[in-house]
Amino acid sequence: MTSLARWDRVEGVRVLVTGGAGYVGSHVVRALLKAGHTPLVLDDLSTGHISLVERNEGVPLLVGDVGDADFLDQVFGGHALDAVVHCAGKAVIAESVRNPELYFDTNTVKGFKLLEAMRRHAVHRLVFSSTCAVYGVPDELPITEDTPCQPVNPYGASKLAFEQMSHAYARAYGFKVLALRYFNVAGASSEGDLGELDFSGTRLIPNLLRAARTEGAFNLYGNNYPTRDGSAERDLIHVEDLAAAHAAAVTRLDIIDPLAFGCALNLGTGRGSTVREVLAAVQEITGGKIMVREVPRRVGDPPALVADGSLAERVLGVSCTRNLDDMIRSAAEFSERELARENSPLRKRELEARRPERKDDKKARFGEVVVAAGFLSPDTIEEALKIQAERDGIGESHQLLGLILLEMGAISSAQLIEALRRMNEPAQA
Ligand SMILES: NC(=O)c1ccc[n+]([C@@H]2O[C@H](COP(=O)([O-])OP(=O)(O)OC[C@H]3O[C@@H](n4cnc5c(N)ncnc54)[C@H](O)[C@@H]3O)[C@@H](O)[C@H]2O)c1
Questions:
Q1: Which structural domain, as residue segments, surrounds residue 261?
Q2: Residue 373 and residue 328 in one domain
Q3: Does residue 19 have its Cβ closer than 6 Å to ligand 1?
Q4: Any domain includes 347
Q5: How many angstroms separate the alpha carbon of residue 7 from the centre of ligand 1?
Q6: 47, 127, 150: which is closest to 316 by C-alpha?
Q7: First to last CA, the chain
Q8: Distance 122 CA to ligand 1 centre (A)
Q9: What is the three-class DSSP state of 17?
Q10: Looking at the structure, do residues 309 and 221 belong to the same domain, yes or no?
């Protein structure tokens, strides 16, 4: 167990923040400090960053896995904790479709280990990072907490399963549990030092800012949704408003009865913005010109997700005070600061992206196979490769390339199966 700082300042509620080295978690830590509480971070740094912990001065970091029972016994045994805010998790939908095992293991199984450690050490207050992905594709808007939960991807399902487990612990063991279902989180801290060091390439505002900076292309997935301009509509919430809701939840957990309202609250603004509206706002604020590439919808992307956040306002006594402009301006300021820093992961990633693409043998061979079979032209492969590069930086694979071609309508399922079969044949002499 390594620690950046000693836990010598104990005021308010002593809170373990899992995933506190991540984007949301680091803002939650800051909000807890501002509310007079005492946070302690547990993170395995798989997608988190030490720098985001260091910028919350004096807050210790315990590096380890939230699913490691022995480690959790050391953490709970060594610190007199009052509550847990559980932000640690995996959160990239496309990755969850390709690798559900990782998502159910991290978000559900390891979550269960945490619940059990809390039970062993009699820490019964829990605030949890859930998501609007638990609702799937809702029939009606705005989405209330009573909207049926019907997740359409393993990410949403893995989060819903943890919600249900913690709910059962609330009923059986007297846990006080609040699942906060975030809509689309965006923006950066008003101090300009915390923000998204985005590596997945899936986040809307960081993607648009990068496209504006580099005059690169932005993929607009779907142009024929039943929305006011045909692009998907999302409810974006500023990360500082979201983090303040966590601090309020920690403060109020003892005086509310979450079981009375189902232990879940939506965190959204109730205002939807379409992708085209966000794009226009980014161009106006940055003065950058973004080249838009209209590509087919992504599988499972709902047309519109807008929250009814009124229950959270009533229960937590907080409201969203920041708007879309605030989100874009703070995110732009944060990324500019990071890009100017020699050792910033964001800067490294951006430089990496400008280097000529490393040749992925399997992907290249898959492209050759489908072209040689006469299924499509090399231009279509190029187009699909660009979508793949921007969709998800994690684990580029020929299977994903095949799925993208399928989504584009460039090949049929039968052709995809045939191409994958030919891939496995030994090369002709
Ligand atoms: N960002 C959003 O728009 C959004 C929306 C809905 C829900 N959420 C949820 O909020 C939480 C935080 O998301 P984020 O956007 O900050 O992502 P993030 O990747 O920046 O943060 C996740 C953190 O969890 C840590 N972590 C992952 N697996 C771990 C493990 N096994 N043990 C210990 N630490 C581990 C990572 O290192 C990272 O610091 C996630 O649970 C996510 O599902 C985020």
A1: 14-339
A2: no
A3: yes
A4: no
A5: 23
A6: 127
A7: 55
A8: 25
A9: strand
A10: yes
Pocket of ligand 1 contains residue 106 by CB under 6 Å: yes
For ligand 1, the distance from its centroid to the CA atom of residue 291, given in whole angstroms, is 30
Q: Using the mean position of ligand 1's atoms as its centre, give its distance from the Cα of residue 19 in Å.
A: 6
Cis status of the peptide bond prior to 148, with omega within 30 of 0: no
Please state the domain count of the chain. 2
What is the full DSSP assignment across 212-255? HHHT-EEEEE-S-SSSSSSS-EE-EEEHHHHHHHHHHHHHHTTT
Same domain? 263 vs 360? no
pLDDT at 6: 58
**pLDDT tier for residue 355 given thresholds of 50, 70 and 90:** low
Does the CB atom of residue 195 touch ligand 1 within 6 A? no
Contact 77, 47 (CB under 8 A): no
Query: Whose alpha carbon is nearest atom 1 of ligand 1?
Result: 185
Residue 5 falls inside a structural domain: no
**Inside any domain, residue 86:** yes
- CATH number assigned to the domain comprising residue 225: 3.40.50.720
Whether the per-residue pLDDT at 356 is higher than 70: the answer is no
DSSP secondary structure, 378-389, as one string:
HHHHHHHHHHHH
Give catalytic status of residue 169 as yes or no.
no
Pairing assessment for the beta strands 233-234 and 273-274 based on DSSP bridges: antiparallel
Tokens of 371: 């072209």
9 lies in a domain? no
Rounded to 5 degrees, what are φ and ψ at 84?
A: -130, 135
309 and 227 together in one domain: yes
Select the highest-mean-pLDDT range: 327-336, 341-350, 390-399.
327-336
Active-site residue identified among 103, 155, 221, 225: 155
